[in-house]
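Hi R.,

As promised on Friday, here is the backbone we talked about, encoded as C-alpha cells. Could you run it through your design pipeline when you get a chance and send me back a sequence?
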C-alpha cells in the first residue's frame, strides 16, 4: 500500500442564521403562548369560581322558594280538605288552560268549597247553579273539593250555551269562574291528565313530605325569632349607655357653644404649627446654603457657588417671604465682590 501523498482538510460550513432566528422567534412565540395560556387559565379559574358562587346562591334561593311553596300549598290543602297530590294536578290544569297562578286557583277552589257547603244547607248563590247542572250539593260536599271539581267539569259538558257556562261558573267560583270555564271544558278526562303530568314533573308531594318541609320552615322561623330576640336584648342593654353618651355630648356642646371655640382653637394651633414648620425649614435651608457657598468660594469655585446659590434661592423663595430672599441675594453678592477683590477667579 502506497504512503499517503499529503493531507487534505475539507471544511464544510453553512449559514444557519435564518435557522437560529427561526428558533429564537419560535421560542418567543412559545413563551407568549405560555403567558397567554396562563392568563386564560387564571380567567377560567376565576370564572369557574364565580359560576360556582352564583350556582350556590341560586340553589339557596330555589330551596327557600321551594320550602315556601310546599309549606303554603300543604297548609291550604288542609284548610279546604284536599290532598296535596290532587291540588297540584288541579293547579297545573288551571295554569295551562286558563293562565291561573297557584294562589288564584286556590282562591277559586276555596270559594267553590264554601258555596257548595252553603248549598248543601239549602242557601247560597250556588244552590240554583248546582241544581241546574243536575248535581246534589250534599253529594258534592261529601265528595271533597277535588272530586267535586271533576264532577262539575263533567256536568258542564251538558251545558250547550257558552253564556250559560259563564253564568254558572260565576255562581260557583265568583270572578275566577270566567276563566275556569276553559279548564272545565275538557271534563274529568282532560283534567286528570294534568294530574299525571304534575306527578311526572315532580310537582306533587305526599303529606309526609309536606310535614318535613313545614318542620324545616318552622325551624327557619325560630332562627329568625332567636336573632330578633338577640337584637332586642342588645338594644335594651345598650340603651342606657347610649343615652348617657348622648347626654355628655349635649352638655359638652352647650358648654363650648356648639364646639365652636374648640374647633377655632384647633384650627389656630394647626396654623401656628404650619407657620413654625415653614420658618424652621427656611432657616435650615438658608444655613445650608450659606455653608455650601462659603466652602466653594474658599476652594476657588465661586462660579459653581453662584449656581448653587441660584438654585437654593428659588427654594427659599418658595417657603419664605420675598424680603428675606432679596436680603440673601445682597449678602452673597457682597461675598462674590470680596472674593473677586482677593483675586479669586470667578
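Update: got your reply. Pasting your designed sequence below so it's all in one thread:
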Amino acid at each position: 500500500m502506497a504512503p499517503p501523498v499529503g493531507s487534505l482538510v475539507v471544511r464544510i460550513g453553512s449559514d444557519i442564521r435564518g435557522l437560529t432566528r427561526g428558533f429564537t422567534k419560535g421560542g418567543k412565540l412559545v413563551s407568549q403562548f405560555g403567558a397567554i395560556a396562563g392568563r386564560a387559565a387564571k380567567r377560567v379559574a376565576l370564572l369557574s369560581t364565580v359560576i360556582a358562587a352564583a350556582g350556590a346562591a341560586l340553589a339557596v334561593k330555589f330551596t327557600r322558594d321551594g320550602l315556601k311553596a310546599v309549606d303554603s300549598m300543604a297548609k291550604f290543602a288542609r284548610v279546604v280538605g284536599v290532598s296535596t297530590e290532587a291540588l297540584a294536578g288541579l293547579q297545573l290544569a288551571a295554569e295551562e288552560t286558563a293562565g291561573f297562578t297557584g294562589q288564584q286557583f286556590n282562591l277559586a277552589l276555596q270559594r267553590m268549597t264554601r258555596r257548595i257547603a252553603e248549598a248543601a244547607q239549602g242557601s247560597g248563590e250556588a244552590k240554583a247553579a248546582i241544581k241546574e247542572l243536575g248535581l246534589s250539593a250534599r253529594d258534592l260536599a261529601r265528595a271533597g273539593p277535588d272530586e267535586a271539581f271533576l264532577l262539575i267539569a263533567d256536568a258542564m259538558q251538558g251545558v250547550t250555551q257558552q253564556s250559560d257556562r259563564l253564568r254558572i261558573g260565576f255562581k260557583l267560583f265568583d270572578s275566577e269562574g270566567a276563566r275556569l270555564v276553559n279548564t272545565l271544558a275538557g271534563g274529568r278526562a282532560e283534567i286528570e291528565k294534568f294530574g299525571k303530568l304534575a306527578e311526572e314533573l315532580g310537582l306533587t308531594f305526599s303529606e309526609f313530605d309536606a310535614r318535613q318541609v313545614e318542620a324545616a320552615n318552622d325551624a327557619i322561623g325560630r332562627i329568625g325569632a332567636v336573632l330578633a330576640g338577640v337584637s332586642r336584648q342588645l338594644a335594651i342593654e345598650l340603651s342606657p349607655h347610649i343615652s348617657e353618651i348622648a347626654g355628655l355630648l349635649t352638655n359638652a356642646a352647650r358648654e363650648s357653644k356648639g364646639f365652636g371655640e374648640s374647633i377655632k382653637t384647633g384650627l389656630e394651633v394647626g396654623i401656628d404649627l404650619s407657620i413654625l414648620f415653614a420658618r424652621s425649614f427656611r432657616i435650615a435651608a438658608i444655613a445650608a446654603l450659606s455653608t455650601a457657598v462659603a466652602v466653594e468660594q474658599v476652594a476657588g469655585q465661586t462660579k459653581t457657588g453662584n449656581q448653587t446659590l441660584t438654585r437654593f434661592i428659588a427654594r427659599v423663595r418658595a417657603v419664605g417671604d420675598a424680603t428675606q430672599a432679596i436680603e440673601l441675594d445682597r449678602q452673597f453678592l457682597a461675598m462674590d465682590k470680596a472674593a473677586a477683590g482677593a483675586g479669586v477667579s470667578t
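One thing I noticed while checking it: The first helix runs from residue 17 to 80.

Thanks again,
M.
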